[in-house]
Structure formats: C-alpha cells, structure tokens
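Reading a protein record of the kind used here takes only a little practice. The record below shows the convention in full:
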Amino acid sequence: MDEASDTDTDIAIVGAGAAGLMATIQAGRRGDGRRIVLLEGAQTLGAKILVAGGGRCNVTHYEVDESAFAGGSPKAIRKVLRRFDVPQTTAFFADLGVQLKREDTGKLFPTTDKARSVLDALLRGAREAGAELRHPWRVERVERLGDAFELSGPAGTLRAGRVVLATGGKSLPKSGSDGHGYVLARSLGHTVTPRLLQSLVPLLLPRTHPLCALSGLATPARLEAQGPSGKRLKSFVGPVLLTHFGLSGPCVLDVSRYYLDAREDDLAARLVADWLPEFPREELDRRLLDLRGENPVRWLATQLPRRLAETLCTMAGVDPRAARLDLTKAARRALLTELKEMLLPVEGPRGWNVAEVTAGGVPLDQVRLETLESRRFPGLFLCGEVLDVDGRIGGFNFQWAWASGCVVGQGV
C-alpha cells in the first residue's frame, strides 16, 4: 500500500449481502487498480442468501418490472432495473459458474437447488475481482474527514475515499440487517421514510380463531387490503397457508405490507379473504340456490379442502353435518359473506425475525439514479434494501439487489 496515501482503501463497501457482493464484483471488474474492502459485521456471511427460497435461493424471476415493487416511484425503480435486467443477471451468474433454471412459478433457482452455490460463487467473484473481505467487521460509525471517510467499529478504524452502504434493512436481524444502516445514513445527512414496516411477513390471528385450528391446510385465495371504508387498496391471488398462529403463504406475504401500511393510517383498515376467487359472487349465489336441499358443504368440499369448507359453513351458522339443508335467504347470504368477503381479524405481523423484507428506507430522490450516489454527501453510495424499495415474493427483491448493486459498483 502506498504510504503516501491518506486512505486505507479507495472504496469501502459496508455489507456483504446480495447488493454488497454485486457492487464489490462490479467495482472490482472495472480493472482500474482501485483498492476495495468489503466489510461484514454479521457472524454468518450471506445469511439471507442462504435461507432464501427454503435454502435454494430464488435468485430472480423470469419477468421483472417496476409493477412488482412498492416504495420509490415506479419510474425511478424502472430506471435502475433496466440497467441490469434478468437476462444480464442470468448471464452474470452463468459467468460465475451458476446455471439458473426456471420453475413453473416463474422463479429462477440455481440448478444445484442449493443457496450455498450462489453465495460461494459471489464470494469467489469478489475475491477474483481483487476485493479484500473483512469479517466479522461491524461498522458502528461513518464520518467525513476532509476528502475521505472514516469507518469505525469494534474491530478498529478504516479510512476510505468512497463508501457504499449495502447494509440491508431491518428484516431478519440475525443476518446482519438490524436497521443500523439507517442510523449510518441519517448520520451522513439522509432521511429515512417515516415508516419502516415488515414486508413479506406472516400475519397473526387470534389463537381462538377457527382458521387457526386448520394448521397446515393450504388453498388458493384472493386477499385484499382495504381502507376503513372498504376501498380496495391492493389484492393478490395465490396460495394461502393456514397455521397455528394465523396466516402465511405467498399470497399472505405479498399483501402484508399493503395491509400493514393501511393500518398505520387507520386501525380500521381491513384484510378480506375470498376463498373462491374463480366464482363471481352472483354465480356462487346461483350455485348455492341450485343445491335445493343438499347440504352446501358437499359441493364446497369439491372446490375447497373439506375441513375449510366445514369451518366456513360453521362460521356462517350452517350445520355442515346435516343430511339435508334448505338454506334460508339469510343463511345463504351469511355463507356467501364467509366465502367471498371473510373479514380476517389480523392482530399484527409475526415479527422482524421472520419478515423477509423491509418496507421503507432512504427515498430514491436522495440519490442520483445513474450511479445511486448520494445527493447529500458526495462519495457516498447506497444500494439494496437500505433504499425505499421492496418487491413481491418470487425473486424480485434479489433482482433489485443485483440491479442496484451493479449500478453502484459501476458508478463508484
């Protein structure tokens, strides 16, 4: 190292998650001889990558655009995503020796079905790009000293010409993304959205709710987040998993951030379930009328898991065990409500320890979209989950990490 230099490294990247590793590789591949140090404070490297997709790592989705994301403006998100799209992502991983395969859901996984192969390839790519990894090395403070930054923590201090914050959000804090990145961003002149919410998170129901007795049962449904007046805010159709604590599954995770956001505005916000989304209410009403004395649970059990059909009938005041049953108009309407407009009394999210993503962060209008360099603090760059962007389940958040990491790596 040049003793005349007033810095220990040219570029310090804080956070060795998906975005940080991508930024490291892209910066190192510029081939201009700049020194790069990658700092990670968590005990386990790449913990989020290792647990993603049930340990298989859902690297991306075959089709990604700004409509799958919330937070920053769609136009700004689109500009970043287009800088490093899905075909480029696929080619990037192939160059690292990781072939991806597309599954019926549209998700792309490594052909090894092992998240470890993804993480190992990224770490190898960072080393080959000439970066130095320091781990565990937690950054507690970042200060501007003249033309450089000083990063400090329990392991010591480091001076760098430029700094990248790839610290993640608040979700899965054991992985290292414990929200400290927002503290660092604020200390350097940035603001953070007023709300930092759990996203892609299971939801809790009262333990005495009848659905909690159906733990392990899964079925497709439509879930809709509504304002207190019943205004539709966002809806998703997909698998819902009933658990001993409440609700999980892809559809629940997707709608969670919209419901939780609406509840911050008004505690009267609602989450409504449609258990037969393929049937319009009028058609379902006609089918119930056509049963003519037959217990509706028999037909419903051909459309839904039987235990769920029986529970919905019971909740509507309809005896699922009756041999014959002539539905009154009131009973039919009550059953239609449970089938098509069940109000789910959500008590809250399951917690940051299981939430996959953070909704909120540093607003995109505080960075230059061409490089993701801070508008407040030249020489500071931000990428990944620390920014106010969060996507649906299915590889979209990883694609944001790859794209934003690439933009930073090439810009820093």
Summary: Residues 1-5 have pLDDT under 50 and may be disordered.
